[in-house]
Automatic annotation (TrEMBL):
Residues 29-262 form the AB hydrolase-1 domain. The lineage of its organism: Bacteria, Bacillati, Actinomycetota, Actinomycetes, Streptosporangiales. GO terms for molecular function: hydrolase activity. Keywords: Hydrolase. This is Alpha/beta hydrolase. InterPro entries: AB_hydrolase_1, AB_hydrolase_fold, Carboxylesterase_BioH, Epox_hydrolase-like. It holds the Pfam family Abhydrolase_1. The keyword Hydrolase applies.
């Protein structure tokens, strides 16, 4: 991640968080949330583009990217929702626009619906929001984390590379793939990878799925039309549950829309923000 590394820190209830901010301090605030097994790195291009007109906040959730990874750490959706609420208070943001991808979508929704976090608007990009979720691979690993934790490092690295690669429809540049995989390698990263899968329980979205009709703010649902991790049918289903939601599908993009179609995604988000 030589070209992207959040340089500021915050001590949260789930460990040290690395974060950063881009853009003019007087511009309207936008917060970007990443998904799993990713980090703020996937937002680097979009963040820099949006920072020309907005104050853009990025962060690596505890247990991800450059933030703290530790034994016994709570990195569940429940914990991340609390941490995000903490971060908004730390930044002094009363009502920012929030853009959330994948697992980050559930984090943003939980913070808003359960913890009272207020947003000016919410953009959900291929979010984890509706049951059932989790690919067959994800469920297999989640049910057998103790076994997968014992994989030799080389086999573990190959598994993570293949898994991350499958999030892209167009294929990831080798340097990008290396950057996305690197945090999950080594004595700290390998157990952290399986820790976050073991704690990714559907009950955390079940708790809020019945409340999406309460969302009373502008909502954009953006989806990669070729997403194989969360089928595009979920985009249409979610759009029917959120009052007044706008739905935009991006052709040629898989689950990692930020990597497959960064220009198209930035254009859609810019139009929504203005």
């Amino acid at each position: 991640m030589r070209d992207w590394e959040p340089g500021r820190t915050y001590r949260s209830g789930s460990g040290e968080v690395r974060w950063d901010v881009l853009g003019d301090q007087d511009a309207a605030p936008v917060v970007l949330l990443h998904g799993t097994p990713f980090s703020s790195y996937v937002w680097r291009g979009v963040a820099r583009a949006l920072a020309t007109t907005h104050r853009v906040y990025v962060w690596d959730m505890p247990g991800y990217g450059t933030s703290e990874m530790s034994d016994g750490q709570d990195v569940s959706l429940a914990a991340q929702g609390h941490v995000f609420t903490e971060m908004l208070a730390h930044w002094g943001l009363d009502e920012p626009t929030v853009v959330a991808h994948d697992f980050g979508g559930a984090v943003a929704l939980r913070a808003h619906l359960l913890h009272g976090a207020r947003y000016r608007a919410l953009a959900l990009v291929d979010p984890v929001a509706l049951a059932p979720w989790g690919s067959p691979f994800f469920r297999l690993v989640g049910a057998n984390t103790k076994v997968f934790e014992q994989l030799p490092p080389a086999l573990h690295g190959a598994l993570v590379r293949e898994y991350v690669s499958s999030a892209s429809h167009r294929g990831l540049h080798p340097a990008v793939l290396d950057a996305l995989v690197d945090p999950w390698l080594g004595d700290v990263g390998q157990p952290a990878f399986y820790r976050q899968i073991a704690q990714a329980e559907q009950r955390y979205t079940d708790e809020i799925q019945g409340r999406y009709g309460e969302l009373d703010l502008p909502v954009l649902i953006c989806w990669g039309a070729s997403d194989t991790w969360i089928p595009v049918a979920k985009a249409h289903e979610l759009a029917t549950l959120v009052p007044g939601a706008r739905l935009r599908l991006i052709d040629g993009a898989g689950h990692l829309v930020q990597e497959d179609a960064p220009a198209e995604l930035t254009a859609v988000l810019t139009a929504f923000l203005t």
